[in-house]
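Hi F.,

I've been meaning to write this up properly since the lab meeting, where we talked about keeping a consistent format for the predictions we share between groups. The idea is simple: the sequence comes first, exactly as it goes in, then the structure tokens exactly as they come out, then a line or two of notes. No screenshots and no reformatting. I'm using this chain as the first example so we have something concrete to point to.
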Amino acid sequence: MVLLVARLVVAGELSMSMDGALLTRDKIFEQVKTPNKWRSIIVIKRQTVDAALLQQSRNLGKSVFSKMGPDGEDALYGFLREQCEKWQANLSGYLKLAETGKYPGKDAIDAGLKLLKLILAEKDSYGFIQKFVTLKAEFQNLSDDVSDLDTFYGTQQPVWELLGRKYAEFVVNRKELDHNPDAAAALHQMESILGHAAPYPLIKDISGLVSKVTAINDALVVKRRSHALEKIDQHVSEVKEALDHIAAPPDLRNRCLKELQKLRQIAETQTSIAHIHQAVTDAIEAKDDALDVIDRYVPPKPAAPTPPPVTPGTGGAEPTKTKAEPPPPIFKKPRVVRPAEMKSGYLKTQADVDAFLGKLRKELEAALAAEEPIEIR
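Output, unedited:
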């Protein structure tokens, strides 16, 4: 009797349920092998899909999965279930990236996985096929989403990552780039693509946008870098001149030039215009610090000459006349004059102008009287 029932189940004529749940074929043997469980098993005539619904689901499967499923309820059910499980696996993989917030499609992936979980909960062919046809519109929409997502995560992901990297590089120079209409428009478009929920049709525009902004950005960086290096080199020359003036030893030269050389290297390699400008500002301070060190430097006194030995009985040697050592060179640190700090507000009258020029002249003449070089800032 049990063998006969088993054959009818395999043939698709009967189904079995236990505790209100339909038993799938892979679970039946586990339950029927123990006789004391037989009373809990109910044998029911299997519900089958009619020919019209079967053909309808077969056509829908072709529309959704782009391939026609086989004839027969069980074979078609196996085909549709396999396709849904493949989608589920792919979408689950995409979700890991989308959840980082750096990749698109999270809402579509979440909705797709929810739909697939719903259909895959149907464990018999009748319920599965009925639900598949009932959810026709949802599966057709999901088919479009999966096509976009497969293409994006399969082939377009590197281009998307390039966009993210280059936009992050450009945005640090946004203030300068926005002065160029072409760069400003391209940056706005890049920003829109990165923030789009479904940017897939726009991926083709990324390479052109990146190339356009790269050319403009590189030209700006080269221009600002050239200006910065010119300024820093001027500061280096001033410090070297001061070091040469006092015949500075190597350790003092290294100490005074080290920070300026470091800032020059930053300006040579930095792609942020703001950081390049900061290197120039820091170089002024580094020069001032170096000149302070030079100003405080005290050269070591030359060693006193060794007197000649006295020969006994000669009454002593005649003292040797020593050549007078020239005085060490005197370094005069430049006096920094900042005209902008000598006024407050606007100069509105002739009296304002005369007062300002008087302060400036007084400061300049005081520097000359002290024999100090003058640096205007």
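Notes:
The mean pLDDT is 89.
The longest strand covers residues 14-18.

If this format works for you, I'll send the rest the same way.

G.
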